Amino acid sequence: MLLPTARLLALFGAALWLLSSAAAAQGVSSGGPANGGASPDVTPFDPASNGGGIYSPPPDQGTPNNGADNGKKKGNTRQDERAVGQTSPTTGRSSRGGQSGAARAGASAAATGMRFDLGDSWVQWWETNKFDFIRLRRVRDTPITGQGQVEETADEREARIQATERLVRSEVIPVLRELTEAQDAAVRASAVVALAKLQDTEGPTVARELLKDKSFGVRRASMLAMGVLEAGRSSYFLMNIADDSALGRQLLQTNNISDEDRGIALLTAALRGHRAPEALVDRLLTDESDLPNEILASACDAAGLMESVQAIAPLTTVALDTSRPGFVRAAATTALGRLGDPGSVPALLKILDSGLEPQRSAAAALGLAGHQKQPAVVKRLASLLENTDGPTRHFAAISLGRIGGEQARSALLSAFKNPKADMRAWLALGLGLCERQRPLGQIPELLIDRYENEANSETAGAYLIALGLCGRDDMGNFASTLPWDRILKTLESALQSNRSHIAGHAALALGLTGHPDAGSKLEDALKNSESPEVQRQVALGLGVLGDSEAIPSLLQLMRNTNNPYVASFAALGIAFMGDANVIGPLMHMIDRAGPNGLTTTYAVAAVGQLFDSERRPTLSRLASGDNYLARTSSVQQLLALGF
After folding, report:
1. Which end of the chain is more exposed for a tag (fewer CB within 10 A), N or C?
2. Containing domain of residue 339, as a range?
3. 93 backbone dihedrals φ, ψ, rounded to 5°
4. What is the pTM of this model?
5. CA 577/CA 80 separation, integer angstroms
6. Is the pLDDT of residue 324 over 60?
7. Nearest in space to 129 (alpha carbons), one of 362, 367, 440
């Protein structure tokens, strides 16, 4: 037993107090020092600025991996006794055509609801980009019920938050620390990341120790945890691993850090936008030696993640360099898009005529860097809708939707009159994104008409998600001007479909709408559906909707289901609401299941999600807006963790 009965009772008592105080959503601080308890003699940074200071290369850093291997992977000297991802298959392929080899952590599906499919499909894009359009709630937010935002005085809010912090320090963090020593590798991985999201003062020490773990998945989860932690020494450790220094090799207990692990260290250090890796990334981007392709591509990704504007020039050089492999140029192009600087648009337009994977990446990146006052960009993207390459025209449709405006809307509507079979889903999503920016009411009617006459069930699912996107903007504002009677009737009918994937898409679409009547429809489906897949998606839909009145139904599902995946998604739904009342039930679930297995892995992942300081799952930025057909192996390995 992880928790004595007395402790469980204390947890439930505190949860009841929080319920009466109307607890709800954003990350809870650990109450510890901002530097994570770094010892005073560790001073690897210049004066801190915007996320932890700038990395200073260690004197022994050298260039042991900068030889003529040109991107060949080097393996660690250890063999894993048990890979983290045995509970779920890895399906992603690297840009070079081989199986990525990433073992997926048991928490992957629960932590983000993501699925990674082979090939190009709208589902692949949606599952790795949906958190661009979902604003999750956190514990510090004012609670929301079906009647709207709960009124809460400043004193009541402060008392609620302090009670939650005390509960986390006394009852949650000790259990998570204990679980970092569990026999189950997936549990260890989930626990170390959850501790980091809670900003545990012992987090850097725990993560450093787990860098030596026998499981490569746990080691990579530890690097992810270091990137999540707001601790200078954690960034310092990651930079030494990325630089393949003597200290980095000591941390991983290897004589030779693989290019993949170096890339993962770079990505995790930059994942939260911290500026610590900036000097190292700049050096790698301008390295004149024979830098391994995996490292260069990871440096490009890192520059985009940390929004390093000074990297625009070297990124442009790499993206336009036709002597580079396509996946490296694709990474540089994606980074230019993520930086969102309109000054990158001319280069992105030029990249459209320069190689297949860079072209696909540029089509996606223009949706992030372009804007409505650049008619030439919209016109060029519209011309790509007839491109001979499928992914290029698919990404172009999404980018037009992201940019929005009358010109983009007209281009999408024109293409939607008589589209190619593969374009119907993508055009629908693009139109949904346009309507999201400026709801006029025309698009939902069109989507419903097409949905009712669509024979392809996969395409029909895209129409449902597009309908959901129409309902609420990126700030969570509800679009009251839409034809809601018909929208809700369509989604409710789809929710009752005997095709579980259609019902699942309808459930998430209802959550996306933000409509006050969506919650009751989702709760009815939760009670009446016997499909685990539908139950999982309904739980996510309720979480995205953010209505805390659904918490009792989700708690009941957690208690009654025999399916650990369903239980985990129910917990995740409450975590997406940011409601601290789920702490007691989650800890009870962990105690009942013990330190091994899927249930504990997922419950721990939900605890981490509940208290994350960001409004999206940790790894979702890594997949956002990219060309998923040309990801590096380092990106694939991190996404396989799923946190």
Report:
1. N
2. 28-38+65-355+595-601+613-643
3. -115, 145
4. 0.81
5. 37
6. yes
7. 367
- 520 has a pLDDT exceeding 90: yes
Answer for the pair 345, 366: CB distance below 8 angstroms, yes or no: yes
1 is a domain residue:
no
CATH number at residue 624: 1.25.10.10
- Euclidean distance between CA atoms 620 and 603, whole angstroms: 19
What pLDDT digit, counting tens, does each position of 392-446 carry? 999 999 999 999 999 999 999 999 999 999 999 999 999 999 999 988 889 999 9
* Contacts of residue 232, Cβ cutoff 8 Å, sequence gap at least 6: 35, 36, 38, 42, 44, 45, 48, 52, 53, 276
| 249-257 LR contacts (CB < 8 Å, sep 24+) | 251/208, 251/211, 251/212, 252/76, 252/211, 252/212, 252/219, 253/78, 253/211, 253/212, 254/76, 254/77, 254/78, 255/77, 256/64, 256/65, 256/74, 256/76, 256/77, 257/65, 257/74, 257/76
Radius of gyration of the chain (CA): 24
Dihedral over Cα of 43, 45, 49, 52: its sign: negative
- Distance between CA atoms of 220 and 457, rounded to whole angstroms? 37
In a domain, 13, yes or no: no
Q: Which long-range contacts (CB under 8 A, 24 or more apart) does 481-488 make?
A: 481/439, 481/440, 481/441, 482/439, 482/441, 482/444, 483/441, 483/444, 483/445, 484/515, 486/444, 486/445, 486/448, 487/444, 487/448, 487/513, 487/515, 488/513, 488/515, 488/517, 488/518, 488/521
Is residue 119 very low, low, confident or very high in pLDDT (cuts 50, 70, 90)?
A: low
Q: Which residues contact 227 (CB under 8 A, 6 or more apart)?
A: 234, 235, 238, 267, 268, 269, 270, 271, 272, 274
Residue 558 covered by a domain: no
Q: How far apart are CA 157 and CA 142, in angstroms?
A: 8
Cβ distance 110 to 606 under 8 Å? yes
Start-end of H helices in 229-292: 232-242, 246-252, 259-270, 278-285
Whether residue 295 contacts residue 69, with contact meaning beta carbons closer than 8 Å, is answered with no
Q: In this predicted structure, what is the pLDDT of residue 1? A: 42
- Say which amino acid occupies 571: A
Q: Count of domains in the chain?
A: 1
**For residue 77, what are its two tokens?**
């000297």
How remote is the C-alpha of 499 from its chain's centroid? 27
- Indicate if the pLDDT at residue 106 is higher than 60: no
Tell whether the torsion through CA atoms of 192, 198, 204 and 205 is positive or negative. Answer: negative
User: Which residues, in sequence order, are bridge partners of residue 145?
Assistant: 148
pLDDT for the residue 449? 97
Residue 509 lies in a domain: no
* Tens digits of residue pLDDT in 347-403: 999 999 989 999 999 999 999 998 888 899 999 999 999 888 999 999 999 999 999
CB 610 within 8 A of CB 139: yes
Dist CA 419 CA 305 (whole Å): 35
Do residues 175 and 3 lie in contact, with contact meaning Cβ atoms separated by under 8 Å? yes
Burial (0-12, 13-18, 19+ Cβ within 10 Å), 349: middle
Q: Is 105 helix (H, G, I), strand (E, B) or coil?
A: coil
What residues have CB less than 8 Å from 589, skipping those under 6 apart?
A: 558, 567, 571, 599, 600, 603
Q: Which long-range contacts (CB under 8 A, 24 or more apart) does 86-91 make?
A: 86/186, 87/186, 87/598, 87/601, 90/116, 90/640, 91/116, 91/117, 91/118
